[in-house]
Structures are given as structure tokens and as C-alpha cells.
């Protein structure tokens, strides 16, 4: 068994929607063993309050994370771009800068190499170091 931190994903919408439940699940994961949380967002949907609230909670609690927009193959190029830009615009209303953002499609493989490169960067950091993101 490796003591190496590993990427974690948590589907916020499947936690029951309760912010206290989300917080307790995150406390379970946000320890010295986690280097980054990948938050998966279905790009077909406009920004949802629960997602924005969760992003703010992550920022307030210093949890390093990246946003992974999924299912970009299900939308036209412009619709997907608009939804992603809307999420980013709303986040930048309260954030100084965005966390890493990845645009993905499991059908076409879009974004796969970028995420794997990012994970490789995270894995090359000394255990216990800040990601610098």
C-alpha cells in the first residue's frame, strides 16, 4: 500500500445535498493524504447554487481542487463553451483566480492527456507540499 496522496473525486449532488453532509465527507478526505480534489461538473447544465456553494466552501477551507467539465461531446461547441464561461465568470465574481479547469469528453477522449499531465505534476511534488495552485 502506497502512502502517496492520490486524487479524489466526490460527486456533490450524490451526497444528499446537505451542506453538513458535504462538509463531513470533505473533512474525511481533506487530510494530509489528499493533494487535489477533482470536482466533476456536467457541462450541459448551467451553474447550480450547490456547485457554487461547494466551490466556495473548498476555497474557504483551503482544499486544493480542479474543476473538470464533463460531457462536452453532448453539446454543440458554442453551447458548451457558453456554459463553461458562465461558470468561470460567476466564480471570478468572488474569486481572485480560478482553480485549474479541464474540459473533457469520455467519448472523444478530450482533456484526458491534460488531466493525466496534471496528476503527474501533482505526484511529482514532495509529500506534504503545497500544490502552488
Structure commentary:
It contains 4 helices and 4 strands; from the N terminus they run E-H-E-H-E-H-E-H. It is an alpha/beta fold. The two termini are 28 Å apart.
Q: Helices and strands: which structural class?
A: alpha/beta
Rg of Cα set: 15 Å
Helix % is 25-40%
Average per-residue pLDDT, rounded, comes to 79
Sequence stretches where pLDDT stays below 50 over 5 or more residues: 1-5, 14-19
- Which strand order does the major sheet show? 1-2-3-4
Main sheet properties:
4 strands, parallel
Quick synopsis:
The chain has 133 residues and is α/β, with parallel strands linked by helices. The protein is 39% helix and 13% strand.
List the topology elements.
Blueprint (H helix, E strand, L loop, with lengths): L7 E2 L9 H11 L7 E6 L6 H12 L4 E6 L6 H16 L8 E3 L8 H13 L9
State the main characteristics.
133 residues, alpha/beta, four-stranded parallel β-sheet, 4 helices, 4 strands, 39% helix, 13% strand, disordered N terminus
Amino acid at each position: 500500500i502506497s502512502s502517496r496522496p492520490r486524487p479524489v473525486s466526490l460527486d456533490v449532488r450524490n451526497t444528499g445535498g446537505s451542506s453538513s453532509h458535504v462538509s463531513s465527507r470533505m473533512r474525511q478526505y481533506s487530510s494530509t493524504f489528499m493533494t487535489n480534489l477533482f470536482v466533476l461538473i456536467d457541462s450541459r447544465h448551467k451553474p447550480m447554487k450547490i456547485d457554487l456553494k461547494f466551490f466556495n466552501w473548498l476555497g474557504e477551507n483551503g482544499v486544493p481542487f480542479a474543476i473538470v467539465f464533463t460531457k462536452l461531446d453532448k453539446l454543440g461547441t458554442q453551447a458548451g463553451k457558453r456554459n463553461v464561461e458562465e461558470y468561470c465568470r460567476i466564480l471570478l465574481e468572488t474569486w481572485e483566480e480560478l482553480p485549474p479547469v479541464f474540459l473533457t469528453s469520455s467519448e472523444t477522449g478530450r482533456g484526458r492527456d491534460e488531466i493525466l499531465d496534471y496528476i503527474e505534476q501533482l505526484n511529482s511534488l514532495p509529500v506534504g507540499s503545497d500544490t502552488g495552485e
